[in-house]
C-alpha cells in the first residue's frame, strides 16, 4: 500500500514534538560559566587592598522558558512563562533559565537566588509597550512609603545570581521618556509630534501623554498638603513614574556578562545596595537624546569589578551613586573597593562619574585604561551642599579622550542638575562660604595620571566650596588640548606634575581663591598667559622647574594679589 501524506493534525503534533525536543532541558545545555584567568590580572598592582570577588556558580540544571509555554513571536505575552521557569528552577535548587533565540515579549521579570538568566545570541527580551503591564508597588520590598513602577528586570535580596549570554534586553523606553526639542533635528521633531503625545506650552518638550507631562506638578501639589502621598496619587501619574530597566537591589554574588541592555525608560543597569559584583563584556545603549538615560549606575555598592564594557547613552555613562546603605550592609562608605577597567564610553554626559549624591561616601576606586569619545564631560565629579559626603582615595590611570564637549576633567560642588553645557557656563569666581555640615561635599585624595585629551571646550575645572575646598588632587602626565585651559577655584593642595595644558585662548592655568598649588615641570604651549591668579585667599603657589623661557608666557596677578604668592623653584 502506498504511503499517504501526513494529515494536518498529525503534522501539527509532529512539529510540536520536534520543537519540544529542540527546546527540552536535555538539548538546552548552556556552557558552564568560565571566567578565565583574566580576572587575576585586574587585582595586580591595585593602589588599595581588595579581596578577589568570587564568581557565582550554578548547578548544571537548565530549563528553557519554552517548556513553560513561552512563544517567540514578538506578540504573545510571556510574563507568566518567565515567572514559572524561574520559580521551577529555583525550587529545584537553582540553575540556568535559558531564553532561546526569538522575540520574547514580556512584562516584569524577577530573578531569584541561585538563578542564571541566560539570554542566548539571537534572543530579544522585549518588554511590553503597555505601561499597565508594570504594576505599581511599594518598592521592591513591598514596604516603602513611596510607590514605584515595577522594574522590567529586577532582583531583590537575591544571592548568587547572573544575567548572561549574547542576547538583547530592550526596555521600549520611548514609550516612557520625554524628549527635549533642542536634541532633535527639525525633521525628527516633526516626526515625533506626528507620532502622538503632547507638547509643552513653550514647545520645548514632547511628552508621551498629558498625564506624564503634568505628573511632576501634580505630585508637588499633593505633597504640599503635608499628607503622605497615597497609592491613588501615584496611580494618577503612573505614566510619569519611569522605572529603571535592570535593578539588582540588596543582592550579593552577582554576575552580568555578555548581554546588551538597551532603550531603558530611565537608567539602564543599576546595582543598588549590593556587594560582590562582576560586570563584564556588557553593551549598554540608547539614543543620545534619551532623558535621564544613564548607562551603568552602581548605587551604594561594594566590591565591584566592571571591565570590557561599552556604553553609549543619553546621560552619565559609568556613574557611582553613593547614597543610603541597605539594611544588611555594614556601616562605612557606601561605594567602596571598585574597579572599572578596559571600558569604552561613547556619547554620555560623563565618561566616569561620581555623584551627584555623595552623602554615603566613597573610598577606594580604581579606573584604568578607558576611552571616552565625544562625551559631554570626561571625568565628572559632582555634588552640592545638602547632598554631599566624603569622597576619597580615587585613582585614575590611563584615560584617552577625544571630542569632549565641555570639560575634560570636572570637580563641581555646585551641581544644579542641568546638562553639562548649561553647568559649564557657571561663574566659579563668586563663591560665599556657608557653615559646614555633615552633608557638605568633601572631595579629596585623588590621583589622576596618564590622561590624554585631544579636543575639549575647557581642559579642567575644579569648582570647590570656600568652606570646603576640593583637596589633595594630583595630576601627573596629563595632556589636554582645548579651547580654554584649567581653572582651579576654591581648591587646595593641587599638583600638576609633568602636565601639558595647551589652550587656544586665555591662560593655561587660572587660579581663583586657591592655595597650595604646585606646577611642576610640563609644557603650556599656546597660552599668552601661563598662570593667572585671582582672589585674596590665593597663596602658596609654586612653579617648580619652570622658567619664563620654558613657558614662553607670563604670570598675571589679579587685583589685590601680591607677587609673593608665587614661589619659583628650580
Could you walk me through the main structural features you see in this protein, from its secondary elements to its overall organization?
This protein has 570 residues and is mainly β. Helices cover 12% and strands 40% of the residues. The strands form 4 sheets. It has a 32-stranded parallel β-sheet that branches. Strands 5-10-16-19 form a 4-stranded parallel β-sheet. A 3-stranded antiparallel β-sheet has the order 13-15-14. A hairpin with a 5-residue loop joins strand 14 and strand 15 (205-207). The longest helix has 15 residues, at 8-22.
List the helices and strands and how they pair.
Blueprint: H1 8-22, H2 38-42, E1 62-64, E2 73-77, H3 79-91, E3 95-99, E4 102-106, E5 109-110, E6 115-119, E7 123-127, E8 136-137, E9 148-149, E10 153-156, E11 159-164, E12 168-170, E13 179-180, H4 186-194, E14 198-199, E15 205-207, H5 210-213, H6 215-223, H7 231-236, E16 246-249, E17 252-257, E18 260-262, E19 269-272, E20 275-280, E21 283-285, E22 302-307, E23 310-312, E24 318-320, E25 335-341, E26 344-345, E27 350-354, E28 362-373, E29 377-382, E30 390-412, H8 420-423, E31 442-463, E32 470-482, E33 484-489, E34 491-497, E35 500-503, E36 509-512, E37 515-520, E38 529-534, E39 539-544, H9 548-551, E40 554-557, E41 566-569
Parallel strand pairs: 1-3, 2-4, 3-6, 4-7, 5-10, 6-11, 7-12, 10-16, 11-17, 12-18, 16-19, 17-20, 18-21, 20-22, 21-23, 22-25, 23-26, 24-27, 25-28, 26-28, 27-29, 28-30, 29-30, 30-31, 31-32, 31-33, 32-34, 32-35, 33-36, 34-37, 36-38, 37-39, 38-40, 39-41
Antiparallel strand pairs: 8-9, 13-15, 14-15
Amino acid at each position: 500500500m502506498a504511503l499517504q501524506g501526513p494529515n494536518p493534525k498529525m503534522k501539527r503534533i509532529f512539529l510540536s514534538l520536534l520543537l519540544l525536543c529542540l527546546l527540552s532541558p536535555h538539548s538546552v545545555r548552556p556552557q558552564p560559566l568560565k571566567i578565565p584567568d583574566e580576572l587575576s590580572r585586574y587585582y595586580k598592582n591595585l593602589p588599595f587592598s581588595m579581596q578577589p570577588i568570587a564568581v557565582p556558580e550554578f548547578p548544571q540544571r537548565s530549563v528553557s522558558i519554552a517548556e513553560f509555554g513561552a512563544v517567540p513571536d514578538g506578540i504573545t505575552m510571556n510574563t507568566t512563562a518567565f515567572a514559572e521557569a524561574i520559580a521551577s528552577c529555583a525550587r529545584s535548587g537553582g540553575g540556568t533559565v535559558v531564553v532561546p533565540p526569538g522575540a520574547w515579549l514580556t512584562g516584569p521579570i524577577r530573578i531569584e537566588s541561585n538563578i542564571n538568566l541566560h539570554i542566548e545570541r539571537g534572543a530579544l527580551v522585549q518588554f511590553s509597550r503597555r505601561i499597565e503591564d508594570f504594576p505599581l508597588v511599594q518598592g521592591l520590598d513591598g514596604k516603602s512609603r513611596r510607590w514605584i513602577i515595577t522594574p522590567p528586570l529586577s532582583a531583590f535580596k537575591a544571592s548568587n545570581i547572573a544575567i548572561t549570554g549574547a542576547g538583547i534586553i530592550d526596555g521600549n523606553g520611548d514609550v516612557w521618556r520625554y524628549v527635549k526639542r533642542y536634541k532633535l533635528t527639525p525633521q525628527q521633531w516633526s516626526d515625533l509630534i506626528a507620532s502622538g503625545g503632547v507638547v509643552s506650552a513653550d514647545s520645548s518638550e514632547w511628552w508621551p501623554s498629558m498625564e506624564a507631562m503634568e505628573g511632576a506638578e501634580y505630585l508637588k501639589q499633593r505633597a504640599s498638603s503635608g499628607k503622605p502621598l497615597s497609592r491613588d496619587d501615584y496611580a494618577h501619574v503612573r505614566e510619569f513614574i519611569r522605572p529603571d530597566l535592570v535593578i539588582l537591589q540588596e543582592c550579593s554574588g552577582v554576575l552580568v556578562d555578555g548581554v546588551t541592555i538597551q532603550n531603558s525608560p530611565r537608567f539602564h543597569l543599576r546595582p543598588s545596595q549590593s556587594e560582590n559584583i562582576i560586570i563584564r563584556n556588557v553593551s549598554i545603549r540608547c539614543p543620545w537624546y534619551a532623558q535621564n538615560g544613564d548607562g551603568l549606575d552602581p548605587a551604594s555598592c561594594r566590591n565591584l569589578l566592571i571591565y570590557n564594557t561599552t556604553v553609549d547613552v543619553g546621560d552619565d555613562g559609568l556613574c557611582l551613586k553613593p547614597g543610603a546603605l541597605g539594611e544588611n550592609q555594614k556601616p562605612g562608605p557606601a561605594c567602596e573597593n571598585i574597579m572599572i577597567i578596559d571600558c569604552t564610553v561613547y556619547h554620555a554626559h560623563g565618561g566616569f562619574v561620581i555623584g551627584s549624591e555623595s552623602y554615603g561616601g566613597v573610598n577606594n576606586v580604581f579606573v584604568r585604561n578607558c576611552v571616552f569619545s565625544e562625551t559631554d564631560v570626561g571625568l565628572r565629579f559632582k555634588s552640592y551642599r545638602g547632598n554631599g559626603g566624603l569622597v576619597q582615595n580615587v585613582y585614575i590611570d590611563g584615560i584617552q579622550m577625544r571630542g569632549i564637549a565641555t570639560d575634560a576633567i570636572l570637580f563641581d560642588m555646585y551641581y544644579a542638575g542641568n546638562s553639562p553645557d548649561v553647568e559649564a557656563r557657571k561663574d566659579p569666581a563668586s563663591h560665599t562660604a556657608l557653615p559646614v555640615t555633615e552633608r557638605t561635599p568633601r572631595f579629596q585624595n585623588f590621583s589622576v595620571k596618564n590622561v590624554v585629551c585631544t579636543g575639549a571646550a575647557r581642559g579642567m575645572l575644579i569648582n570647590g566650596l570656600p568652606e570646603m575646598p576640593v583637596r589633595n588632587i594630583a595630576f601627573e602626565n596629563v595632556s589636554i588640548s582645548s579651547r580654554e585651559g584649567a581653572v582651579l577655584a576654591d581648591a587646595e593642595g593641587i599638583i600638576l606634575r609633568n602636565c601639558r595644558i595647551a589652550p587656544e585662548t586665555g591662560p593655561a592655568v587660572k587660579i581663583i581663591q586657591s592655595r597650595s598649588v604646585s606646577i611642576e615641570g610640563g609644557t603650556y604651549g599656546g597660552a599668552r598667559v601661563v598662570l593667572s591668579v585671582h582672589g585674596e585667599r590665593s597663596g602658596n603657589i609654586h612653579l617648580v622647574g619652570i622658567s619664563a623661557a620654558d613657558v614662553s608666557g607670563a604670570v598675571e596677578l589679579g587685583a589685590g594679589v601680591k607677587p609673593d604668592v608665587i614661589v619659583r623653584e628650580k
